[in-house]
């Protein structure tokens, strides 16, 4: 099976509670190799650009306020079936629906402050990786 890359984020609710190390440890335990990583605070404009597909959704304003409220960690990582596998490890968007043991079940505060992000398809993974990292940072 082919190695695939995905883009993960540790969201501001998680960095604020010092969960960065626990989430990175879980990433490695689940067989992902970290290819590139950076910690930064997004501006509102940058958060709006990242979540542009959700622009028409009612939660867009609150989401982009939240995502620019504190530091995030962006991670480009790879393994077999990385995109689907990382979404499994994160669990459902709403922690109320997330399976036992998933990161969102363990750490999310609510449907918005849900601790982590993962790309949902190869096309979005490519766009999201390029949002944070240049080609020479992902070798
Ligand atoms: N979100 C929210 N309210 C909702 C749905 C989503 O605040 O009703 C936020 C949440 O932080 C989520 C992000 O918007 O992770 C992107 O939504 P999406 O449906 O893409 O969920 P994901 O792919 O992150 O599971
Ligand atoms: Mg999504």
Overview of this protein structure:
The protein is of the alpha+beta class and 139 residues long. The chain has one domain (3-137): 2-Layer Sandwich (Alpha-Beta Plaits), CATH 3.30.70. It is 40% helix and 20% strand. It contains 7 helices and 4 strands; from the N terminus they run βααβααβααβα. The protein has helices at 12-16, 20-29, 44-50, 60-67, 82-90, 103-107, 122-132; strands at 3-10, 33-40, 72-80, 116-118. It has a 4-stranded antiparallel beta sheet, sandwiched between helices. α3 (44-50) crosses α4 (60-67). Uridine-5'-diphosphate is lined by residues 54, 59, 63, 93, 111-112, 114, 117, 120.
Jot down its keywords:
single chain; alpha+beta; Alpha-Beta Plaits; 20% strand; globular; binds uridine-5'-diphosphate; binds magnesium ion
User: How many separate structural domains?
Assistant: 1
Topology, number of strands: 4
* Topology-level CATH name: Alpha-Beta Plaits
Nearest-angstrom radius of gyration? 14 Å
Percent of residues in beta strands? Answer: 15-25%
The coarse overall form would be globular
Strand order of the largest sheet: 2-3-1-4
What ligand molecules are bound, each kind once?
uridine-5'-diphosphate, magnesium ion
Show unreliable segments: none
- The CATH superfamily turns out to be Nucleoside diphosphate kinase-like domain
Approximately how much helix is present in the residues?
25-40%
Strand pairing plus helix content: what structural class?
Answer: alpha+beta
- Tell me what the CATH architecture is: 2-Layer Sandwich
CATH class: Alpha Beta
Number of helices: 7
Query: Average pLDDT, to the nearest integer?
Result: 98
The run of helices and strands is EHHEHHEHHEH
């Amino acid at each position: 099976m082919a190695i695939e890359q995905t883009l993960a984020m540790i969201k501001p609710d998680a960095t604020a509670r010092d969960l960065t190390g626990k989430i990175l440890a879980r990433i490695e335990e689940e067989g992902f190799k970290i290819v590139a990583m950076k910690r930064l605070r997004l501006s509102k404009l940058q958060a709006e650009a990242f979540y542009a597909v959700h622009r028409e959704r009612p939660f867009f304003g609150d989401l982009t306020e939240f995502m620019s409220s504190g530091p995030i960690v962006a991670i480009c990582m790879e393994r077999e079936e990385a995109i689907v596998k990382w979404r499994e490890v994160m669990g459902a968007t709403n922690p109320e629906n997330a399976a036992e043991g998933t990161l969102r079940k363990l750490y999310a505060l609510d449907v918005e402050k849900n601790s982590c992000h993962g790309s949902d398809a190869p096309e979005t993974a490519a766009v999201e990786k390029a949002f944070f990292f240049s080609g020479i940072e992902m070798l």
